[in-house]
Automatic annotation (TrEMBL):
Enzyme nomenclature, EC number: 1.1.1.29, 1.1.1.95
Key word Transmembrane helix present: no
Domain D-isomer specific 2-hydroxyacid dehydrogenase catalytic: 19-316
Record organism: Bordetella ansorpii
Stated family: Belongs to the D-isomer specific 2-hydroxyacid dehydrogenase family.
Sample GO molecular function, one term: glyoxylate reductase (NADPH) activity
Residues forming coiled coils: none
Keyword NADP: yes
Protein name: D-isomer specific 2-hydroxyacid dehydrogenase
Keywords in alphabetical order: NAD, NADP, Oxidoreductase
Any single GO CC term annotated in Swiss-Prot or TrEMBL for this entry: cytosol
Length: 317
């Protein structure tokens, strides 16, 4: 039996076994192995019906339009800002992602960052490793209590909601900012992001990425959060104006930042690396074996469903 023809934009290096499972079930055109992509697409892309990609690898309009038989794009990951949805819709191409399965792990990591930033855990770890404990008078600077404080969330979607639920376990008052208020949650709504930042002790960024949210968290928001405030980002780096954040931390107008994502990954400003009021992680929000396996299974389930029924399980609307 002939295997269905798919195009894989790049290796899914963060997935436990996706590359092998794809190769076993499909006739995979491995685009990343071709130096001249245009020539490779012209020679091998005519029969490609589906693309497998990720939030990092994406699928631009040029790629979509170079595949005349394309009907589906199945992405590994929840983000889809790197996929040209307009180009896909014009061609009638289905797009799917892997939502829900990574919600808890990303929310857990947000809380790990928040607590680490507030209690200076990262700084304390470096302090001990450097052999400074017991060799200098005193200790690291005092941290900030987490329980009972005010938690602001930027983007109360699946992940934001999970972060908010965890906040109630810390006896926190929770407010959020969305494009519009929700009537199915008990948390307060802030129509203005600056207003939310002025109120909050901790501001967690959990909104979608893409052009519509680029630099949503700007200088005014960061300075409204204030010299004792902590910003946490587990969404997408460009949501925060990174240069403004660096300037605010250096000037003392922002208390600190705990970040899993950055504006120009994998580049991280040296000023953030050297500052004791930052916690920096290498974009590992979903990086547990359990979650990555569930993401892999759902991506493959979308692909299998498309070839069996012409539909996907978790379409991007």
């Amino acid at each position: 039996m002939t295997k269905p023809r798919i195009l894989q934009v790049g290796p899914l290096s963060g997935s436990p076994s996706a590359n092998a499972r794809l190769a076993d079930a499909y006739d995979v055109f491995e685009l990343w192995k071709h130096a001249d992509r245009d020539q490779a697409l012209a020679e091998h892309g005519k029969d490609v019906v589906a693309i497998v990609t990720s939030a990092t690898l994406g699928a631009k309009a040029e790629l979509i339009n170079a595949l005349p038989a394309l009907k589906a794009i199945c992405s590994w990951g929840v983000g889809y800002e790197t996929i040209d949805l307009e180009a896909a819709r014009k061609r009638g191409v289905l797009v799917s992602n892997t939502p829900d399965v990574l919600t808890d792990c990303v929310a857990d990591l947000a809380w790990g960052l928040l607590i680490s930033g507030a209690r200076r855990m990262s700084l304390g770890d470096r302090f001990v490793r450097a052999g400074q404990w017991g060799q200098v008078h005193g200790n690291i600077p005092l941290g900030t209590r987490v329980s009972g404080k005010k938690l602001g969330i930027v983007g109360l979607g699946r992940i934001g909601d999970a972060i908010a639920r965890r906040g109630t376990g810390f006896d926190m008052e929770v407010r959020y900012h969305n494009r519009r208020a929700r009537n199915d949650v008990p948390h307060g709504y802030a129509a203005s992001l600056v207003e939310l930042a002025e109120w909050a002790d901790f501001l967690v960024v959990a909104t979608v990425g893409g052009p519509g949210t680029r630099h949503l968290v700007n200088q005014a928001v960061l300075e409204a959060l204030g010299p004792k405030g902590l910003i946490v980002n587990i969404a997408r780096g460009p949501v925060i104006d990174e240069a403004a954040m660096v300037a605010a931390i250096q000037s003392g107008k922002l208390g600190g930042a705990a970040l899993d994502v950055f504006e120009h990954e994998p580049k991280v400003p040296e000023a953030l690396k050297q500052n004791g009021n930052t916690v920096l992680l290498p974009h590992i929000g979903s990086a547990t074996y359990e979650t990555r396996m569930e993401m892999e299974n759902l991506m493959l389930e979308n692909l299998q469903a498309f070839f069996a029924t012409g539909r996907v399980v978790t379409p991007v609307e």
